[in-house]
Amino acid sequence: MILSHPSRNRPAAGPAGPAAPARRAFVVHGTRLLLGAGCAILVAHPATAAARLDFDELYAKVTVLGLTFSDKVKSLDGQIVTMRGFMAPPLKAEANFFVLTEIPMSICPFCSSDSDWPDNIVVIYLDRAQTFAQANAPIDATGRLEVGSWTDPATGFVSLLRLVGASFSKV
Amino acid sequence: MRILAAVLAATTCLIGVANAANVFPIDRATILAGSAFDFKVEFAGVVKAEDVSITINGEPAAKILGKDVAFIAKEEGVDASAVLLRAAKVIKPGLYTVEVKAGNDTKTVHWDVYGTPDTPKAKNIIFFLGDGMSVAHRTGARLLSKGMTEGKADGRLAMDDLDHMAFIGTSSTNAIATDSANTMSAHMTGHKTAVNALGVYADRTKDPLDDPRVENVTEALARTGRKSVGIVTTAEVEDATPAAVVAHTRLRDRKAEIVEMMFALKPEVVLGGGSAYFLPKSTPGSKRKDDQDFIKAFTEAGYSLATDAGALQAVGQANAGKILGLFHTGNMDSVLDRKFLKKGTVNKFPDQPGLVDMTKVALAQLAKNPDGFFLMVEGATIDKMSHPMDWDRALYDTIEFDQALRVAMDFAKEHPDTLVVATPDHTHGVSIIGTIDDDKPGEDMREKVGVYAAAGFPNYTDADGDGYPDKVDVSRRLAVFANNFPDYYETWQPKMNGPFDPAIKNEKGEYVANAAYKDAPGAVLRIGNIPRSTDTAVHAVDDGILQASGPGSEAFKGYLEESDVYRVLVEAFALAPAQK
């Protein structure tokens, strides 16, 4: 999988397969790095260091008539970024995408008809299917940032911000 | 062995019943004469068209229903036949016996088609819906807002002075338990239905937009006259309660389609949250999956748009025609956050109007129609804050609901041809059991709960006379508990940093106590008593209490099914006078 030639219209998603339990493969700009779980990318490869992006930096303006992406988001479009948040309960236990939220989700919009996603979610497309992580603790997700509305053809899920070819680790 | 045999027999018997044909409207349906409804028969298996016989009071169905039924040899995704007639009508009031037959598959149901007096009693109806509002919410709002001395309330809520009341049975067609969709649907159509359904009976096909429809109040008013309709809520305007005023869908979460249905009926005033479903998907913040722009569609259809409290006042004073007010992308914040704590999403949407201001603008606009109006006002956040057991927010919102009701009752004083109704859609399992007194000795919060005589009285104050306690986190406050809950940390304190989030889902799909509250001083883990798949406290099956004043309100008494409430409304409006 070559991440330096991404398609804007198709988030990269690797072949489904079980994740290595203790060690996790990160693919950053074509370089395959094997890292111990929880080990920071920044230390291992400063030249391709992922920029940090926080939830409160996503939007410059939030109004009834729409949100406006921040300059930081716009400038990081297509770059590798790391975001810290919580993994929302996924569609199924093992999936190649999940929703990253600012605070832990007490509701499950996938399973309840009375709930809705927060405005400021980021959808994480993993480079491979992985199992769900404990929602009570934050995670760091790292991948290439995609900005703009996109509808997942498999699920119909519409997202505005995505990290594609991503991996995650517990903080 | 004998027990097993008995169980098997019972099971077989149940299957036998389930295999009979289903008829919609269901047995014992009450139907407004002349109202449009879809007639559907679902046979248990595939049958031949020539074997099907449907009579109503012994006559061919088409003669009574106004049109012939269509036979469906095999329904989509179902290995069985059906009969369907969209927009049927029964004009003449009376009892009807519907007999359906196809071979051995037979079913008989009875309908009560009712007319109304020829002359309206009321020109206007203001229907206040306190979502989830239970007895404890009323008592708590009175204690917080008015205070109490030596066991007597120091003041009365607006709803305390409504003249008539009834106990309302809130159950759904498929369970004793219920939700805000099917309950409000019963209020707004006169038909009970299944949990999550709005303006339809729940059929067996998968499509949530094809179920047999029944007429709602907005359609009934459009069919019979020129009254205006207003919808005011603190939730998303496409949330279940406001949706029930306009929508037809098996699933309340089809919010994008609900906005389309709202646009099709064009209520004169729509105020609340939920703009995300009005925005085309290309606009960041949209929750639509298509490119339809309903902000544009509504404004092009002549609506004045307001997106904050200031603009709402301006639009209200501008003598505008129709008004669309959307003040949040999602649900609006609770009044405790909006007016006092500035938590929740108030930093993003700092100028949201409250229910009182929205009610005032809606009434001023609707009252311009010489033919009268129907206004639905929902105190949505009472329920939204009761689910996570954030009782302080739920009670503050009950106060706001009551203050908005006061505006409506004042309007009715000036316009005595106005029927005012205040009711919940369903209740919550919540009670006030005493006080929590921080000044009692020790660290163990449980021992600071005052019960019986030790409860004393809370020490809330209202120095500014705005009807809300000046401070929510007083030292001796109400002890309010749910009778059902997921695992959660009881903190014994108002949630000063934002609405309570008691439980979150773990990797096994189970809701576990949210660790964010673990270290709050005095917090204790309470192990839940509802299934681990349930995220928050649930609705109660307990009756709701409806109260009302004005012309027609005397019909609210004793026990009524929620579907009977609609009959009182349409009788007050005389929507089915005798055919001359």
UniProtKB/TrEMBL annotation, chain A:
Tagged with keyword Protein biosynthesis: yes
Protein name: RNA polymerase subunit RPABC4/transcription elongation factor Spt4
Superkingdom to which the source organism belongs: Bacteria
Keywords assigned: Elongation factor, Protein biosynthesis
GO molecular function annotations of the record: translation elongation factor activity
From TrEMBL, chain B:
InterPro entries with a match to the protein in the record: Alkaline_phosphatase, Alkaline_phosphatase_core_sf
Entry superkingdom: Bacteria
Gene3D superfamilies recorded: Alkaline Phosphatase, subunit A
SUPFAM superfamilies: Alkaline phosphatase-like (SSF53649)
Signal peptide residues on this chain, from the entry's feature table: 1-20
Name of this protein: Alkaline phosphatase
Alphabetically ordered keywords of this record: Hydrolase, Signal
Keyword presence, tRNA processing: no
Homology family: Belongs to the alkaline phosphatase family.
Class of enzymatic activity (EC top level): hydrolase
Pfam families referenced in this protein's UniProt entry, alphabetically: Alk_phosphatase
EC number(s) on file: 3.1.3.1
An example Gene Ontology molecular-function term: alkaline phosphatase activity
Hydrolase found in the keyword field: yes
